[in-house]
Amino acid sequence: MLLVVFVTTLLSVAVQVATNMESLKFFGEAITSRSGSRLGRNPEVNMNTTELIRSKGYPVETHKVVTQDGYILTVFRIPHGRQNKNSKDPRPVVYLQHGLIAFSDNFIANPVNESLGFLLADVGADVWLGNTRGNIYGREHTTLDPKSLEFWKFSWDEMAQYDLPATIYYILNQTGHEQLYYVGHSQGTAIGFARFGEDLELASRVKHFIALAPVARVGNTKSPIRLLVPFSTELVLFLDTFGHGEFDIPEPLLKFLAGNLCERWGEIICENFLFLLCGYNTRSFNTSRSDVYISHGEGGASARNLLQWAQ
């Protein structure tokens, strides 16, 4: 977890050092336009979540969840698989929650037979892809401006306190079910551990909690990146000053990198960048989709959330 925190924070510092986030967005759009609006051989690089799901032949719905403190989260629903629309069998509800600096696409970025979201839909589940405040689908608020520092004053504590219960109760209300299955990955497990242990009523609404890469503490991290921990406060101060408390790599820039770094300038560079972020494991890595992983992997976060993990 510390590895992800500091590599991504340093990358954000590198791309923010010359200007602010709005200028970076303009720069990303400019280089994308100059290089061609549809970069890369794989069209999935340029798809948004709904386009990606529909391109595989699945239905998709877009829902808005409003938390008690006013954050508006976009969640996606795959109500059934490609072949079981009219099935009369019971359809269990499964809520998939992503990890740190990630977003819902993490569960659908692989081929159909290797993506958890699609696999669950095809075996009869009603699949919901969650998002938390601060990622690309969690940058709306009933009163706060996402460009203000006030909007970004949160960590995963608030995700556990507000985002998780709001999403669970919304899903149950929409489906009419009393319980659901919760699948969390990395930070998605941490917010589950934190909230379900305190809120027994909410915990009773979860039939099973499946924890993928569960996180309870990060003290045993062996990566050399942990040597940067003493500088975490300074890095966050930089992000507060130049990026209003937000960590993000602009989407147009990510798509440009995916279409060029991965396909034109050398796949090995792209692959090793992902290994640095996520851990080195060539046996579990689909090299043919590294461009998709780059363009659909990073969803943004708050600087304070990164700082909390570093601490």
TrEMBL record:
Question: What residues does the Partial AB-hydrolase lipase domain cover?
Answer: 49-110
Q: Which GO terms describe its molecular function?
A: hydrolase activity
Please list every transmembrane segment annotated in the UniProt record, as residue ranges: none
Superkingdom of origin = Eukaryota
Signal sequence bounds: 1-18
Q: Which Pfam families match?
A: Abhydro_lipase
Q: Which UniProt keywords apply?
A: Glycoprotein, Hydrolase, Lipid degradation, Lipid metabolism, Signal
* Single biological process term from Gene Ontology: lipid catabolic process
Alphabetized InterPro entries for the sequence: AB_hydrolase_fold, AB_hydrolase_lipase
The UniProt entry's sequence similarity note says: Belongs to the AB hydrolase superfamily. Lipase family.
**What name goes with this protein?**
Lipase
Species of provenance: Elysia marginata
Q: What is the lineage of its organism?
A: Eukaryota, Metazoa, Spiralia, Lophotrochozoa, Mollusca
